Amino acid sequence: MTASPGLQAEDRPDFERALHQALRTAEIREALGRSGSSGGTDIQRLRSQALVESEAIATAAAPEYAAYLRQRAAAAAAASTAPGPSAAAVSAAPTAPTASAVRAAPFTTAGGRGLLPALAVLTPALAGASAAAFLLLGGLLRLSGSQRETADALLTAGLTSATIAAVTLAAGMVCLVVTAVRHRSSPPDRQPRPHRRPHAHPHPHPHPHPHPPSGSQPPYAWRRDDAAVATARDAWLRALLHRGILPFLRERLKMSHTLSRTSQKSEKGST
Predict the structure, then answer these.
(1) Are 42 and 32 in contact (CB under 8 A)?
(2) What digits encode the pLDDT tens for the residues 180-204?
């Protein structure tokens, strides 16, 4: 016959919650009221006594606790020995582009295209400014009557610059219109939305279940193991409450009531 497993440290919070539930039951409250000790001091005294005798109380539910420990160990072993993702799948997975590559992409792919719009904007402006300067200087020199040849050359350069400005401005407007029409005619790229699976029905058990590690095992396996652990835990807590904690509290209250009656009789006899 094997010895009953001792209460592990990680299960003591469950023991304390079960004890708190037992102290709040109507039976214990009425028993405290009949004995005239329903104050917080007496409840704290019972709690302290139960915590001191926690190992002895837990032996009343030893079979259920052993089954709970077995289920928990089996679930932990299944989670630790489940196969992970293979190295080939990891190596074949597409890697995400780095931030530097993303930043450098517009310059490498659209470097040549970005030069033409810049020239289309700068050339008319520079040619127009040059034409205005040449025409102004040539006109002033012609009005003054000196350096007639220089004035004619400046006027010719101004007219040439004005022609270049007009031609490049017209070409830029045509390119702008063509680009606008092209963007309007081509629909924007739409990425396909990922297919969403319908939400699964919530598990009937009230205790929340932790999510399994990614790629560890099929969903039905970890849900089944976790449900078995939760069921074994509930069975242990019920047995601990009804066969361990409540009988211990009843016995302590009975002893306290007997001692109080004995002390009252002794006081009456002495008087």
Answers:
(1) yes
(2) 887 776 555 445 454 444 444 444 4
As given in the structure block, the two tokens for residue 174 are 């045509």
Instruction: Name the more confident of 3 and 61.
Output: 61
What is the Cβ-side half-sphere exposure of residue 30, based on CA atoms within 13 angstroms?
A: 3
- Encode pLDDT of 115-154 as tens digits: 666 777 788 888 889 888 988 887 887 788 767 788 788 8
Mean pLDDT confidence for 42-66: 93
Q: Rounded to an integer, what distance in angstroms lies between the CA atom of residue 58 and that of residue 12?
A: 10
Residue in this structure with the two tokens 């006081």, named with its chain if needed: 267
Task: Name the one residue in this structure whose structure tokens are 């709040």.
Answer: 24
Q: Could you give the CA distance from residue 241 to residue 27 in angstroms, rounded to a whole number? A: 13
8-state DSSP, 186: S
Distance, CA of 85 to CA of 186 (rounded, Å): 41
> In a 3-state reduction of DSSP, which class is residue 85?
coil
Cα–Cα distance, 63 to 69 (Å, whole number): 10
